[in-house]
Amino acid sequence: MVLKVFFPSCCSLAESGILIGRWISEQNSAVILAVVHFPFIPVQVKQYLSEVQRVTKVGISVLGSWSNSKQEKEESLSEFLEDLGTIFSHEPWIQISKEGDSKFWSCSTLQKHSNNPKEEEIILVYYDQRKVMLSHLHPPLDTATSTDHRADDASKLSAIFDTVAKSKILFMTDRYDDGPIKLTHWQSDGVEASIIVELVKQASVPACMLLTFLLSLVSGICRSRVLKFWPLSFLWSKLSTCEQLGHRLQHLQVISSNKKAQTQTQLMRKANIFVSLLIDVALGILLMSWLYRKNRIGHLADTLIPVADHVAEELQDLLQWLMGAPAGLKMNRALDQVLGRFFLYHIHLWISYIHLMSPFIEMILWYVGLSACLGLTVALCILSDIIALLTFHIYCFYVYGARLYCLKIYGLSSLWRLFRGKKWNVLRQRVDSCSYDLDQLFIGTLLFTILLFLLPTTALYYLVFTLLRLLVVLVQGLIHLLVDLIDSLPLYSIILRLCRSYRLAAGVKFRVLEQQDGKPLRLLMQINPLSYGRVVQTYRLPTYSCYPKDSWTSLCKKLFLGELIYPWKHKGEKQD
Fold it and tell me: What sections of the protein cross the membrane (predicted)?
């Protein structure tokens, strides 16, 4: 039988005393947590350990004795350490002794109450107590498909990590305290850092209370009935800026909540949201300072009108090309002229609208630039909405062409069923047989011929404006991808993985130290950190936008049939 003793490396220089920790009988392992120094009163030690057990819910007890002498071990000390086993009565009683500056320690066990005491092989495992206590052990990915051996190893490691993590109250007492019990553990050099952290927590309480009050006020305004009327509710659901502001408002409510995080996942989520907000606002302020320096807002307003005019002129040239013989194709001249003049009139209205707004564009951009102080993501969403407003005429062209093309496609498919003696049953949602008379067949043939010969002209306009619409959607999609990246990236977890990799543990590895015959095997337990991909996958924050659920086949089918596509729909919206 192999006995595994997990010994904290910070206690290797501790003075002689007794070892306290947890005995895990299922693994035949002992997790040493601290060393109680001489002199002490056994009754007080038992009372202290019972109080620690009541608070931590961990079975902490005296596991054995520790001897650290720079000279030869005295016979009286050896007998006294053995007699402590009868006072605290733990089976087995572990005796660890370090003599002088030797690297090899003596480790043995006593079983006084056993009739047939067996000599056990002992493995001494050193571990960094501070790293193990602060780290969070993540379960293996795809636990359901992992082997039973791997899951069993993960549960054994989890028991050791939980023992150290739950024993924080034990580390509040050190060897410099004036109490009757003096301990050596990882925090033996003092708790100054913990005191500073507590002071910062207490100082942040008034700020969190003020932020909570302001957020409750803003949330009340957002839930008011005024915003539920048609124009405001429509704008709130369609503008990505409003969606992003609502998303950030939820984040502020999470981090300002006075409810304590119950699990490590909730704590990491709050920290990731806080760091994401902090970096987002910092980047937004940098963008705002860049915009208002050297009158860049005025230069941007001066170049916006010429760019809009240039786009309108290019569209006019494109329509003139379509109204002729595009690529040598023979088009229906009457329908071609009607559609071309219809779209040219819309471009004329758009140019008039842009020039009407030109005196106010610089002022609008000046006030819009101030919104960058709310964060870079808000500024990017405003940019996406501005692009949507500036290309609204292209969207109108796409809708007109798609509806006209879709009407002809469905008309041709319906008339094609008429030739085959079929019809679409609306109630049963299927195609049934049907008999038609000569008049119906004649009219159907006439309409089918008209729609078929007008289809190339309509399809060409639909193809051109669909490509323009997809170009605009691609630009907006790249902006939304950047916004989603900033919103969902767990920056705190990535920084923690970079600077304190042991905090995010995926497992452990053991390194064999010097080995000598007759001495216990000495291992060093080291923490394996999570990979960066696993960190992003585990702690990725949810975003407000969702990608289309349609596959590429479904998307191509919609484009072929002329159905409207909305690649950047938000959650809760109805899909057309």
Answer: 203-222, 273-292, 338-357, 364-391, 397-419, 440-464, 470-495
Overall residue count recorded for the chain in this entry: 576
| The token pair that represents 178 in the structure block | 């004036």
What was the pLDDT predicted at 282? 93
pLDDT-derived band of residue 294, with 50, 70 and 90 as boundaries? confident
**Token match 């969702």: residue?**
546
Closest CA to 281 of 378, 380, 382, 373: 373
pTM above 0.85, yes or no: no
Question: Which of 320, 372, 368, 363 shows the shortest CA–CA distance to 341?
Answer: 320
Is the predicted pLDDT of residue 366 greater than 80, yes or no?
yes
A 10 A CB-CB count for 378 gives 22
454 Cβ contact list (under 8 Å, min separation 6): 332, 335, 408
CB 351 within 8 A of CB 436: no
Alpha-carbon distance values, 96 to 92, 122, 200, 239, 298 (Å): 13, 11, 41, 69, 78
pLDDT over threshold 90, residue 16: no
Phi-psi category of 328—alpha, beta or left, where left has phi over 0 and alpha has psi -120 to 50? left
For every residue of 519-536, DSSP letters joined together read S-EEEEEEEEEPPHHHHH
Class of the CATH-defined domain 2-184: alpha beta
pLDDT of residue 570: 42
Backbone φ and ψ for 504, nearest 5 degrees, come out as -115, 95
Report the distance separating Cα 156 and Cα 140, nearest Å.
Answer: 13
Q: What are the Cα distances from residue 514, in Å, to 94, 285, 519, 523, 525?
A: 21, 56, 10, 9, 14
Higher pLDDT, 214 or 418: 418
Cα separation, 318 vs 96, whole angstroms: 89
> First vs last Cα of the chain: how many Å apart?
69
Identify the residue with better confidence: 144 or 53.
53
Pairing of strands 106-110, 93-99: antiparallel
- DSSP character at residue 182: -
Q: How wide is the angle at C-alpha 124 spanned by C-alphas 120 and 127, nearest 5°?
A: 150
Q: What is the pLDDT of residues 228-280, one digit of tens each?
A: 666 666 666 678 888 888 888 888 878 777 777 778 888 888 889 989 999 99
